[in-house]
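User: I'm putting together notes for a lab meeting next week and I want to include a structural view of one of the chains we've been expressing. I don't have a solved structure, so I'd like a prediction I can at least talk through. The sequence is below, exactly as it appears in our construct file.
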Amino acid sequence: MLASILIMAVSAALLVYWFRYTCLLILRTRTAKDYAADLAAINGLTFPGVQETALGAASADELSVIERSLDRDYRLLTYLLKQTSDLHVGGLTIEQRMLILDYRLMRLLFTLTQGMAISRARAAVMEMTDVLSHLANAMGERVQATSRG
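Assistant: Thanks for the context. Below is the predicted structure for the 149-residue chain, given as structure tokens.
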């Protein structure tokens, strides 16, 4: 009984580690052309501005405002990706689904830490911004591919 619980706990910890490591690897990959800035400008998304600002001096209230604007961007980007998934064989890729889950987890982490650990909340906001940038780039690639074909 104890061995089974220990095996399940270790397996769960390894699964979480694998998920985080894979998400960070996905976020580090860069494409030859970055479509995120163009897509953000066309759709009025705010995440590029967050990437350019220094969050190190942001207060908890400022981070809260930034998080709300990122959440708006997230809703718009996921809506666009889901609407255009019919154009792309197979819909959302596994990487995009993982990043969507990662965004939701970072939003939860932000909510839990914004009052207690402001540095962890800042890191969560930065990762949320990176996820949005990656999703916007994927959306831009999708638009570019459909305009060529």
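A couple of points you could mention at the meeting. The two ends are 58 Å apart (CA to CA). The chain has a mean pLDDT of 88.

User: Perfect, that's what I needed.
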